[in-house]
């Protein structure tokens, strides 16, 4: 508990002193909403600017450099109970802030929850709207915005590429269109224009399926807009004649009876594949 002071030194109306050219420039820039440092003969940038390089005692150059406005917290200490003359009336941090482009740190307040405070925290200044040319024109620093909550809704139309357009066109005729690589002879469905394995241009088209073999499958218990009834089965199906499986719904059979290696056949409806179903014995 600090004892009550028994002396007061006060200049009624304030004590007017001249700032000198360096501090004067710093404060004038603050009034304009900018932060400047000054360069030393050793090319380091001092912020706040000083008339003399504290390392060498040499005068600094009349070379002002705009820094920040963002910076990085290097050290900080927490003030749980602000005093009357503190810049904020709620808990805050005093921090050593290295502004971008500066070689020295500035002491200033950071208005942030204690949980957010850490060495390395990126901060930006919060300026007073009515600036007068004082260090308090910089009200405090606040953490950089790193997350936002955005309402996302995008409406879009998918334009199939040439190969996919041909594939979809064939599906409307109840045909699976595949492409055979001239070099490695792999057969791809959906039909595509180049071989993903060897990069060759695919020119040969062929029909595959509509029967195939289940290579692997999943029983889904969460409804999907495309399969509202649960459980539903999604399966990888290797169409006869193809080297790559397609993924599709599998229906007309209880989920528990689906097995790897099962023979299935596409059921077309409305110009597309409705699902695959177990192949009926002829
Ligand atoms: Zn190939």
Fraction in beta strands: 25-35%
How would a crystallographer describe the biggest sheet?
5 strands, antiparallel
The beta-strand count equals 16
Shape: elongated
- Arrangement of strands in the largest sheet: 6-5-4-7-8
Number of folding domains? Answer: 3
Order of helices and strands: HEEEEEEEEHEEEEEEEE
Number of H- or I-type helical stretches: 2
Ligands, deduplicated:
zinc ion
Radius of gyration: 36 Å
Indicate the mean pLDDT. Answer: 86
Summarize the amount of helix as a percent range: under 10%
Task: Indicate the structural class.
Answer: mainly beta
Residue windows where pLDDT falls under 50 for at least 5 positions: none
Instruction: Give the terminus-to-terminus CA distance.
Output: 97 Å
Keywords:
single chain; 282 residues; mainly beta; OB fold (Dihydrolipoamide Acetyltransferase, E2P); five-stranded antiparallel beta sheet; 16 strands; binds zinc ion
Describe the structure.
The chain is mainly beta. The protein has three domains: 20-143, no CATH class; 160-208, no CATH class; 210-282, OB fold (Dihydrolipoamide Acetyltransferase, E2P), CATH 2.40.50. 8% of the residues lie in helices and 33% in strands. It contains two helices and 16 strands. The chain has helices spanning 20-31, 162-171; strands spanning 35-39, 45-46, 64-67, 71-79, 92-99, 106-110, 122-127, 138-143, 176-180, 187-188, 204-208, 211-220, 232-239, 246-250, 263-269, 272-278. The protein has a five-stranded antiparallel β-sheet, with no helix packed on it. A hairpin with a 2-residue loop joins β15 and β16 (272-278). The longest helix is centred in the N-terminal third of the chain and has 12 residues, at 20-31. The protein starts with 19 loop residues before the first helix and ends with a strand. The mean pLDDT is 86.
